[in-house]
Amino acid sequence: MGFQPQRDKVVGLAAAIADIADGAMIALGGGLSARLPMASVRELIRQGTRDLHLVGSAHSIDVDLLVAAGAVRRCEESYVGFEQDLGLAPAYRRAAETATIEVAESCCVTMLAQLRATEMGLPFLPVRGVRGSDIVRLHPEYGEVTCPFTGEVLVAVPALKPDVALLHAPLGDRYGNLHLEQPYVLDERFASASARVVATVERLVTTEEIAAAGVTIPAHLVAAVVEAPFGAHPASCYPDYAYDRQHLAQYTRAAQVGGDELDGYLKTYVYGVADERGYQDTVGDERLSALGRWSQSTADWKGLFR
Fold it and tell me: Are residues 167 and 143 in the same domain?
């Protein structure tokens, strides 16, 4: 846990990401296609950060995009893909099959135990869930421990302390207090266990507004706050906007083909824009506004996912 004293922590996105070194262990907040820290992911790629060790629960375009850009060395996730909607994550699958990244599949409960060990100042915690699975084979750092009360042999998983947690929240104040809508996934635990937290937020609001909404992650855990509207796009950030299925389908098609198609996507949406304002202009204000109208009617909501 990195304690951050009370101060104004608002910075630009480029400055917040510039402190992340090659080879860092990065915890990615959110899950699947919800509240992913996509603005930070795109900036990591623009800055040419390499050899990253990613940890997270179940993720999609954030991990796949970083892999596609050649930024990843090792990946510890319980799942990377687009579920039954758009299928497996193409760049991640290709990299796994060709061994161009290290794949160390984990499970959500095991990672939760590792983060809790860090929070409690313990070197490890015991788990049952991965016994008898190949997950243990993928993690030579795991051990065994015998329960002194029952004699049961359990898997001992070491404390996990990411160098940086990248989170995205609907609301934050300038001191780093964050409000998240449920489900929190592992964001709270990442914030407590990581050495440093960089948070992008949809809107910067007053501390009084954050208190009224409810502080999910307190300021003393957060090192930097970046105001980044649509910072989770093309993932969702409810209640502000739904996920952009059309954009995700565009990406997965390009990633499946690879080569020039994938390079074209990266050039258009990442390398070819200077910042997140440029990204939003490329996506289009009309499309982004439509995603924000998801809750107006059932017809509007269904229309986004055709």
Answer: no
Same domain, residue pair 27 and 145:
no
Q: Is residue 42 part of a domain?
A: yes
Residues in CB range of 257: below 8 A, 6 or more apart: none
pLDDT in tens, 24-60: 999 999 999 999 999 999 999 999 999 999 999 999 9
The answer for residues whose C-beta is within 8 angstroms of residue 29's C-beta and 6 or more apart is 35, 36, 37, 56, 165, 166, 167, 168, 185, 186, 187, 190
- Hey, which residues does 10 pair with through a beta bridge? 225
pTM, two decimals, is: 0.94
| pLDDT of 134 strictly over 90 | no
Give the C-alpha separation, 280 to 192, whole Å: 31
Q: Are residues 165 and 275 in the same domain?
A: yes
Residue 118 lies in a domain: no
Q: How far, in Å, CA of 228 to CA of 122, rounded? A: 36
Q: Which residues in 122-156 are b (16+ Cβ under 10 Å) and which e?
A: eebbbbeebeeeebbeebeebeeeeeeeeeeebbb
Q: Is residue 112 part of a domain?
A: no
Clarify whether residues 168 and 250 are in a common domain: yes
3-state secondary structure of 153: strand
Give residue 146's domain range.
Answer: 125-158
DSSP-based three-state secondary structure for 90? helix
Do residues 92 and 67 touch, judged by C-beta distance below 8 A? yes
Under the phi-then-psi rule, with left for phi > 0, alpha for psi from -120 to 50, and beta for the rest, what region is 264?
alpha
Q: What gap in Å lies between CA 237 and CA 239, rounded to an integer?
A: 6
